[in-house]
Amino acid sequence: MSVKVPIPTNIGDSVKKPLGQRIAFAVAILCYAAAVASALAAFLYQSAPSDDPVRASLMATVVFFIGCGVVLHIIGTAHLKGVLSGSGHVNDD
After folding, report:
1. What are 29-75's pLDDT values in tens digits?
2. Is 25 exposed, middle or buried (0-12, 13-18, 19+ CB in 10 A)?
3. Distance (Å, rounded) from C-alpha 11 to C-alpha 17?
4. More confident residue, 69 or 88
5. What does the alpha-carbon distance between residue 88 and residue 43 come to, in Å, rounded to a whole number?
6. 72: which of 8, 22, 27, 50 lies 20 to 30 Å off by Cα?
7. SS3 category, 32
C-alpha cells in the first residue's frame, strides 16, 4: 500500500518576501553588477608594471562585490516564514 503525498511545486510563489529580503536581493544584484564593472575596469586598465596597485585593488573589489552579492543573495532568497514571525515554534509540553 502506497500513500501519495502531494508535492508542492510553487513553494516560494505564494509567500510574499519581507521588505528587508527584497532590499537584500536588489542590493545583491547591484553587487554583481559592480563586480562585473570592476572586472571590466581591471581588464581594460593598461599599466606598464605587472604589480600595479590600482589593478590589484580593482581585482580585490571584484572579490569583495562577489562575496557581498552571494551573502545578500542567500539572505534575499531564504524561506524565513516562521523564523522571524515566531509561528514555527513547537510547544514543549
Report:
1. 999 999 999 999 999 988 777 788 999 999 999 999 999 999 999 99
2. middle
3. 12
4. 69
5. 49
6. 8
7. helix
For residue 68, what are the contacts with CB-CB under 8 A and spacing of at least 6?
27, 28, 31
Distances (CA, A) of 90 to 47, 79, 83, 86: 61, 18, 12, 10
* Amino acid letter, 27: V
Beta strands in 7-91 (DSSP E): none
Measure Cα distances from 72 to 5, 31, 68, 81 in Å.
Answer: 34, 9, 6, 18
Cell of 20: 528587508
